[in-house]
Amino acid sequence: MLGCTSKTRSLLLGSIAVLAGLTIAPWGQAAKPGGGGGGSVPPGRIFYSWGSEFGASGSPPYLEDRGFWSMNADGSDKVEVYRPQGMADLSHRVHGDHRWYLTLDVYATHPTRGALYAVRDDGDPGSVVLLLEGDDLPGTRSLEGFARWGKDDTFVSVTALDEVNDVAEIWAVEIAFDATTGSPGLASVPEAVVYEPLADIAGHDWSPLADELVYTIVVNTVDGNTEMSLVIKDLITGDTRLLVSDAIDPFWSPDGAKIAFQGAG
């Protein structure tokens, strides 16, 4: 992950492995009855990331053998659907006959500021499309990763760091798919939607109507500990409220009723 602070990089490496201990947080409606008191089994396929984490003694861990898999809600029929070449995010969308994944990598003009790519799942020539680079943002901001598609495929968002002012941000930009090639491209100017001074942002996801955004705030305390909290920002009113502490990797359900996250403890 380009430009990540050490605490964000460690957080990502610790959480992007298998989604063990995944928690489903009800949001907006009660869980449906049945299933031993845990709510009903969610329909359809579940997509998740898998990675081996290791490193030399005294060195930070890094991921090896990354992959993205799908399975039925009961855990059966596990299938590898995509193996990224670089650091890829789990966020993907189906358009036409392909899934498009979001990937952070370097870009030749400003390699230290990073670039956001959309990668088609077949890996054919032309399947990697540059969407956004750090140079497209004002000032000296660098792209930090944790990119997400909006639920309706019309926009993507990515975290960035304003290193001069020590502010973590989330930027969003509209996306349109070309009618001939089927490839995505920018359809607007990037817009900052979240500012968090003196903190990191580690993961975020959008509500179905894109009127709310859930994200992880990472703060180093004066006693040397790290606090991680999921917060929800109302993009209409600008209000922010705490959802849960000691949690990372939020994912909003397509119907808006629940938020899934991983415990950070």
* 3D shape: globular
Helix content estimate: under 10%
The chain-level structural class is mainly beta
Helix-strand topology string: HEEEEEEEEEEEEEEEEEEE
Task: Tell me, rounded to a whole number, the average pLDDT.
Answer: 75
How many helices? The count is 1
Q: Per DSSP, what share of the residues sits in E-state strands of 2 or more residues?
A: over 45%
**Oligomeric form:** single chain
Low-confidence segments, given as residue ranges, are: 1-41, 54-64
Total E-strand runs: 19
Q: What is the terminal separation in angstroms?
A: 23 Å
Computed CA radius of gyration, to the nearest angstrom: 18 Å
Major β-sheet, in short? 5 strands, antiparallel
In words, what does this structure look like?
Helices cover 4% and strands 52% of the residues. The strands form five sheets. Strands 9, 10, 11, 12 and 13 form a five-stranded antiparallel sheet that branches. A four-stranded antiparallel sheet has the order 5-6-7-8, with no helix packed on it. A four-stranded antiparallel sheet has the order 14-15-16-17. A hairpin with a 5-residue loop joins strand 9 and strand 10. The N terminus is likely disordered.
Question: Can I get a quick summary?
Answer:
The protein has one helix at residues 6-15; strands spanning 22-26, 45-54, 62-72, 79-82, 87-95, 98-105, 115-120, 128-133, 142-149, 155-162, 167-177, 184-186, 191-197, 200-206, 212-220, 226-234, 240-245, 247-252, 258-263. It is mainly beta.
Task: Describe the secondary structure blueprint for this structure.
Blueprint: H1 6-15, E1 22-26, E2 45-54, E3 62-72, E4 79-82, E5 87-95, E6 98-105, E7 115-120, E8 128-133, E9 142-149, E10 155-162, E11 167-177, E12 184-186, E13 191-197, E14 200-206, E15 212-220, E16 226-234, E17 240-245, E18 247-252, E19 258-263
Antiparallel strand pairs: 1-19, 2-3, 3-4, 5-6, 6-7, 7-8, 9-10, 10-11, 11-12, 11-13, 14-15, 15-16, 16-17, 18-19
